[in-house]
Amino acid sequence: MNTIIGELGKLQKFIDLSNQIEKETSPISISGLTSVGMTELVSAINGYNKKPILLLTYNEIQAKKIVQNLQTFEGEKVVFFPKKEVVTYDYVAESKDLPYERIETLNKIKEKKNLIVVTTIEALMQKLPSKKALYKNTLEFKVGDIHNLEDIKKSLVNMGYSRCDLIEGRGQFSVRGGIVDISADDKTGIRIELWGDEVDSIRNFSISSQRSISTLERAKIYPANEYVLDDKIENICKRIRQKLTEGKQDEIIEEDLEQIKAGNYISKIDKYFDGFYKEQETLIDYMSKECLIMVDEVNKVEQREMNILQDIENLSKNLIEKEKIIPEALTNTMSVDFESLENKYHTIYLEKQDAVTKKQAQRYHFEYREINYYKSEIENLFEDLNNWNKEKKSIYVMVENKEKAKKLKELLEKEDILCKIEEKLDKTIIVKSTENIVTISIGKITEGFENYEINQVVISADDLIDGGKKKKTFANKAFKEGEKVVFADLKVGDYVVHKNYGIGLFVGVNTITADKTTKDYIKLKYKDDAILYVPTSQLDAIRKYTGGDALNLPLNTSEATVKRLLKKIEFALKTNPQIVPDSIQVHFENIKLEGIQIFIYLNSTQTGYDDFEAFKDGVNLEILKVLESENVKLSYPGQNIYIKEKPMNDTQDQK
């Protein structure tokens, strides 16, 4: 068990909570949490009560943040089940990523007993084929077992695998003589070698090289996607044909039936879901009966549920007006009755800080607070670490890789702060010591937190320290220079680049109703407090800002603020291993109409053009964080950080 989680397990309040869970008390309400503090508690419950968990939240942005934080504590035990994108138009091509992500999660639920499954209210409301129908053709192989090759091929086709000469990715199988190759994921496969009808050997192999990796005694093959057929095509078509009503839609249905008979049925399943699947279930039905249902901020979840149902109603009216068929995957979307859920499953409501659910429940309150540091505030971290050490707190500092861990350890040791690196906290041997030691570990969490209940502090230090080289692609446009948006990494206050509107500030996620349709939008702030709303379905249009030419201070910036900024910028640059420390000069240069100009003079250790451009982008981002820490807005339209060369010897590239 993770050492951080283990400390929570010693708390009497947590022990009482764990006992109530064992007694099947339902519902339970837990308040006082922070975003990452919540995942610490969820991980502890999973570890000590040994029960699978279905964690329900209000949108996919929040879900992916929860997954990232949980995986730091629990690793591969945490899986995400995304919603299904139901389209209202006919299509030929389709994205393969989403179906595979969903089926991989369903397969893990069936195979493993103690998973933490994170999903959204929308995904939970959507119907699935019954568990019985999905897994009726599962194959199991064991060395020495007897299998008929023709039966194997038929079962694989029924499970959604497509046959090819040589497998190149997911959802494929090939047969060469008595050797059957079946893809397990996009990188590895299972190779079954038959001697007659007897399984002679089972091996893992690399899809790219086709070489064996290891031998296995047994293997289990699950469906390749969730769109397996539960009945003969003829029977499915009969049920769909019953929808014919001598209207304009009949022509569409007849065309669809021809496609289905020809084997091109996957794109038609959402439209005729009831015709394909007589027995339907939801994600909860796939979970074991002893699982815990945890609801993240139930008020937001219930509001999102209402919005979804309203969206479906409005969309259905629109389709009727256009004489189009309403997909049955939409019409059979079900609402979630939380009262019934409480009676059937052990239900736990999770609330942030002082928010308390109005639902009748056994109540627990844990004292947490959120902690965040920017790079320019590393001195504040040093001061806080010394204070926490005096207070005998357990202190853990998380960074995303070994390079950052080593660099941070060097910085702490220069400040005479005792520290150690533990890459894997689940293998840490706790040794009693008279002195407090800060533990640096490898992991990525979205925010830090303090757990007052157990005198514990967990810090995210990725913004505080550089470490390792980052590969970047360079182009003339800021959009192309940006990093693709990852929900779990996006924080309020981050700079992003819109494809059409340029650099803006991410200030949150809003739910907006327009034209009788309710959707989630990314909210971006621009010059003069202008606001741009970007639908979450169009996130390909934005990138995370990774640098630029950019920044003058506004003319109304006070002299004291300018002085603080100069000091903070200089300190931030001194911790950058790609800068020659003695070369740094940061000073006020001039006042122009565009704003107060700051000049930065330095020598870089980078000697290649692309490396220097990448380095310069990194410096710009550091300075953005410093400005943010002082709540200084950017000055438009003049936006220039001037990084000029400082005379030095020999060959180092400068600008």
Give the biggest beta sheet: 7 strands, parallel
Q: Report the count of strand segments.
A: 32
Model regions low in confidence, pLDDT < 50 over at least 5 residues: 92-96, 468-479, 636-655
How would you state the average pLDDT, rounded?
Answer: 82
Residue share in helices? 25-40%
How large is the radius of gyration?
28 Å
Distance between the termini: 50 Å
Instruction: Please give the order of strands in the largest beta sheet.
Output: 3-4-2-15-16-1-17
Overall form: globular
Please tally the helical runs, counting DSSP H or I stretches of 4 or more residues: 20
**Could you tell me the strand content as a percent range?**
25-35%
Structural class: alpha/beta
Explain what the structure shows.
- This protein is α/β, with parallel strands linked by helices and 655 residues long.
- The chain is built from 20 helices and 32 strands.
- The strands form 7 sheets. The chain has a 7-stranded parallel beta sheet with strand order 3-4-2-15-16-1-17, sandwiched between helices. Strands 7-8-9-10-11-12 form a 6-stranded mixed beta sheet, covered by helices on one side. A 6-stranded mixed beta sheet has the order 18-22-23-19-21-20, with helices on both faces.
- A hairpin with a 2-residue loop joins strand 10 and strand 11.
- Helix 3 packs across helix 4 (60-74), helix 9 runs antiparallel to helix 10 and helix 19 crosses helix 20.
- The chain is globular, with a radius of gyration of 28 Å.
